[in-house]
Specification:
With 301 residues, this protein is an alpha/beta fold. It has eleven helices and twelve strands. The radius of gyration is 20 Å and the shape is globular.
Length: 301
């Protein structure tokens, strides 16, 4: 007897940026030192045009609960709107990047609420909205993977533009082992990074791979000793901040649109980007600095 899989046709999806959550608010942000936002489950730091978001539930291996999801989304909105930030780094506190969704606070609570006819936390809505927000962030985003990146922890890293990994890290997308399907755009990003065959292997088995294996299959950009992760991450971030910010942002937009465009449309997009950047103050500054044998000073104009 064959089992039957019914696929329901989804309703058209319309997603707008802004706040998603209208029920119980888990957000308890406040102004910290020098006006920086302060949260309970993440840490947001800004220095030298680099923003760093640290997932900060180390006692739970930085597993995502509703409060962390809301705080992360709020921080991303804040960074996305900050023209002074040129690079975003996402990392984890303690020995994990993130162990994924909090089984008790995110999943079990939702199951119990659904059984009692109560409306639970809209995690699916968050996944859709936060993924598009990360994709459309004008700043390059670096995942600095300091330890285990499991489930949502790994898919969040896949949503970043660059991944630098501690050699002690372990990575996995074990969704089928908890009776779920991959989320956060994993089925879009993973095959584009490692190919469809390897993506199938990782998703169908839910296997855990080492940092070295992740580097071999093209999943991450660089693997470094744990003691060198921070310096390697900020070396790359600093290198990006030293480039012309307008050019970097337009290049990021072109790269991702190019993944789904044909050559003619991509050439048109590049043409529009060149018209903008070649008339910019940053381009003139770069040319003059090269000829004068000095370091350029970019202003994002």
């Amino acid at each position: 007897m064959r089992s039957e899989v019914r696929i329901l046709s989804p309703r058209p999806l319309t997603i707008r940026l802004g706040f998603l959550f209208k029920g119980t608010s888990y957000l308890r942000k406040k102004k910290g030192v020098e006006g920086q936002l302060s949260y309970s489950t993440i840490i947001l730091d800004k220095a030298e045009a680099i923003a760093t978001v640290t997932l900060n539930r180390s006692e739970k291996l930085n597993a995502f609960n509703p409060q962390m999801l809301e705080e992360l989304f709020d921080a991303l909105v804040h960074i996305e709107q900050d023209d002074d930030i040129r690079v975003l780094v996402i990392t984890g506190a303690g020995r994990a990047f993130s162990a994924g969704g909090d089984m008790e606070q995110l999943f079990l609570r939702s199951i119990e609420q659904r059984k009692h006819g109560e409306k639970g936390y809209d995690v699916i809505g968050w996944l859709l909205k936060a993924r598009l927000l990360l994709r459309n962030m004008p700043q390059p985003v670096i995942a600095s993977i300091n330890g285990a990146a499991i489930g949502l922890g790994m898919t969040v890293s896949l949503a970043c533009d660059l991944r630098i990994v501690s050699e002690e890290a372990m990575l996995s997308v074990p969704f089928v082992r908890i009776g779920a399907v991959p989320e956060f755009g994993c089925t879009y990003s993973l095959p584009r990074l490692v190919g469809i065959a390897k993506a199938c292997e990782l998703i169908f088995t839910g296997k855990t791979i080492t940092a070295k294996e992740a580097e071999e299959i093209g999943l991450v950009n660089e693997v470094v000793p744990a003691t060198e992760l921070k310096s390697a991450t900020y070396k790359m971030a600093k290198s990006i901040t030293e480039a012309a910010p307008m050019a970097v942002r337009l290049a990021k937009k072109e790269l991702y649109q190019g993944m789904d465009a044909d050559l003619q449309n991509q050439l048109q997009l590049e043409y529009e980007g060149l018209v903008t950047t070649l008339q910019s103050e940053d381009h003139e500054e770069a040319v003059r600095a090269f000829l004068e044998k000095r370091k350029p000073i970019f202003k994002g104009k």
